[in-house]
Input
Amino acid sequence: MTDKKQEPSPSKDPLHGLTLERIVTHLMESYGWEALGEQIRIKCFTSNPSVQSSLKFLRKTPWARTKVEDFYKYSLRKNKLK
Output
């Protein structure tokens, strides 16, 4: 009997390995703050937006982070990211 190590299967999660900072930056680069604020109606994207202020808000607000992550996955499926 040989003891084969099973290779870990690649994750099917499109967010696997991505940081929140990378997600926000990628969305901002693809859409711009104005369009991003129209797509995801949260104040950190509409009122004096920056990556750092958005990260601060999203890290402590789970419902908003979920909206951003869901929009990122949607954008990936629709090939809308640069």
